[in-house]
Structure formats: C-alpha cells, structure tokens
C-alpha cells in the first residue's frame, strides 16, 4: 500500500431489526447498552473507535487494518462484536454492515465515532441496508473476494443462532462468554458446563444435552472461520 495514501479502516454498523415494532423496545435498548459496555471492556483496546450506540437502536465501531489485514486479535474482536451482540440481544434480531475504505478526515485520539465520516462508513451503511433488504445477518462491502465469504459465513451463523430458544441462547452465551478466542489465535476453552448448570439450577446433563442439540461446537468453529476471513492480503 502506498505510504502516502490515506489509511483504510473497517467500519461496522449494526441495527435492531424491526425495532419500531418491538413491544419492549425500552427494555431491549437497555440490554443493548449493557451489551455494548461489556463488549467494549473485553475488546475496546482492539478497536480504532469503540463500539458506540447512536440513534437509540444503532451501533457502530471502527477497526484499523495493519499491513493490509486485520491483526488476529482485531479479527477475533470484530467477530465477537457481531456474535456477542447477537447472543446478548436474542431473540431480538440484528443486522450488520461492514465497510472497508478511508475516512474523510484523519482519526484524532478521542474523536467520537459519530463525528467520523468517509467511504468506510458509506460502504458499511450500504451493506447494512442490503442486509436488511435481503434479511441477512451481515453484509460486507469493500473487501473484494472477502465480501461474499464474510456475508455467507455470518449468514450461516446467524441462522443457527436465530433457531435457538431463549434458554438455549442463555446456555450458549454463558459457555462462550464474550471471549471465545485465545489471544494467540484459536478457540479458547469454554466455561465449565458444571458451572453453567449451577448458575441456572439444573443438572450438568441438561446443559450438556442442550449444547449437543444446538450444535454449539459447530457454531464455535464457524466463528473461528469468520475470524479467519478477516485476515489476508485481500484487505488493502
């Protein structure tokens, strides 16, 4: 990449699907705030601008690729933002848009994400609108061959997540936590099933059978594939 060129960023936009029709919209917005705070505590240091709520129902975050690709920790963080919000807000559905491109002005320390603008956000907004129009979990734009790859992997993950019952989501969220990847890459150890069972006052076999029924290990492997899709020289 030309050193004189503007740096490229990866913008993530998310929105609650059908938020105006929610009967418990205030409660959902409160859950969204709690989720954003938790995810920022876990992954804020990997973002160029932390996850932020705007307009009541929308979220946005910004990542800075290094040498043409997201570093592994940032790739894992971007994946966990999407899946973490999905797990914390279920059964309320979200749609996401990813956009890769420049900012219109240099990013200064402390600049609120709502004050930023540029091609990365324009593409993310277009991707978000497309995700809503096509009923997809996430759509990506500006990443070349990675656009259909990320869109497809997250489509499968979103479909799996949306098929779970509220109690199944509870177990999955507790098992996965907010950090399903190890710092050096790869899948992290999950929370002990006995501990999850104790939290919900059920037997360990109940949790074990539930996790088998929802194919949680497939979900974790899909999440790892999504993180890997953020890596590579196709981001430039």
Offer a concise description of the structure.
The protein is of the alpha+beta class and 236 residues long. It is 48% helix and 14% strand.
Protein model, in words:
With 236 residues, this protein is an alpha+beta fold. Helices cover 48% and strands 14% of the residues. It contains eight helices and five strands, in the order βαββαβαβααααα. A five-stranded mixed sheet has the order 2-3-1-4-5. β4, α3 and β5 form a beta-alpha-beta unit. It is globular. The model has no long low-confidence stretch (mean pLDDT 87).
Layout of SSEs?
Elements: E1 8-16, H1 25-43, E2 49-54, E3 58-63, H2 72-89, E4 94-102, H3 119-134, E5 138-141, H4 146-162, H5 166-176, H6 193-200, H7 204-213, H8 216-229
List its salient traits.
236 residues, alpha+beta, five-stranded mixed β-sheet, 8 helices, 48% helix
């Amino acid at each position: 990449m030309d050193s004189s060129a503007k740096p490229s960023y990866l913008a993530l936009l998310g929105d609650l699907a059908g938020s105006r029709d929610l009967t418990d919209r205030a409660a959902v917005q409160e859950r969204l705030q709690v989720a954003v705070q938790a995810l920022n505590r876990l992954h804020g240091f990997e973002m160029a601008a932390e996850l932020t709520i705007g307009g009541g129902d929308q979220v946005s975050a910004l990542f800075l690729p290094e040498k043409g690709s997201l570093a592994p920790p940032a790739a894992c963080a971007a994946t966990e933002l999407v899946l973490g919000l999905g797990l914390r807000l279920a059964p309320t559905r979200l749609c996401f848009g990813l956009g890769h491109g420049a900012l219109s002005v240099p990013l200064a320390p402390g600049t609120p994400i709502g004050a930023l603008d540029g091609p990365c956000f324009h593409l993310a907004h277009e991707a978000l609108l497309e995700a809503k129009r096509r009923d997809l979990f996430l759509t990506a734009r500006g990443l070349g061959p990675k656009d259909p790859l990320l869109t497809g992997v997250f489509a499968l993950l979103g479909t799996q997540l949306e098929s779970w019952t509220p109690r199944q989501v509870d177990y999955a969220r507790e098992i996965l936590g907010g950090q399903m990847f190890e710092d050096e890459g790869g899948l992290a150890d999950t929370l002990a099933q006995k501990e999850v069972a104790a939290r919900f006052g059920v037997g360990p076999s109940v949790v074990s059978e539930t996790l088998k029924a929802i194919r949680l290990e497939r979900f974790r492997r899909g999440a790892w594939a999504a993180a890997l899709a953020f890596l590579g020289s196709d981001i430039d």
